[in-house]
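Hi R.,

Here's the chain you asked about this morning:
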Amino acid sequence: MVLTGTFSQYRALVPSIENGYFSRLLTLIVNDRQPFSSRYVELAESSPAVIATAAQQLYRLYEQLWSGKPCEFSLTGEQRNRLGQHLQNAYPALIRMLGEDFHSVVLRMAVQIERIAMILTALRLSEGQSPLAVSHWPLACSDTDYKTAELIGNKLILHMAQAYQLIKGTEKVDVPTVKPLDQKQILLSLLPEEYETKTLLDEAQSQGVPIRTANRWNDKWVAEGIVIKIRQGHYMKQAAVA
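And the predicted structure, written out as tokens:
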């Protein structure tokens, strides 16, 4: 179910950060006050057909899943470990900044990331073979789908942090632009204790970080002593040295 509305309407649905809806909803804040263009209007006229086509595809997938034997989805052991480490490394800063009340959102995001990965896997499967033709269960998530789900989760939790601050506020404020300020820390936390430049750039690409930005962050880590340069193109986190 997708709901859209103004912030005042959102606050009516979620009046308090202690409301159970807050940690269960995936919130996306959109700042767009641009006027409609003629190109958008032309596309909007055909939107019912686009929606109908997408609905038919999802319904066919639903029929396949409902009419067959029970289906099971699972992250791999490595993906589960990565998700746990990711939550431990990347999100505590948000909790320290916003308070312990935000802790439930962080815990819920672990579930949300796994659900997003499951949806991506199901949609990818529907493009190829029928779920009924799968020979073994549980169906494992691919690394590509998991990284995509994790990246989506990283973005969504930043939007939820903004909504959290707005709900706690007593006065109406303009919704600020959400910027991924913690992406640098997330990238560093996902790198192994020793890594090469290729590993850095591959991980940066999976997180949507431009190559030039990743290289600049890496140079800054070295300058600040967070990372030690062992030799050309080979680095080690300071914690590993200690």
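Residues 170-181 have pLDDT under 50 and may be disordered.

Let me know if you need anything else.
M.
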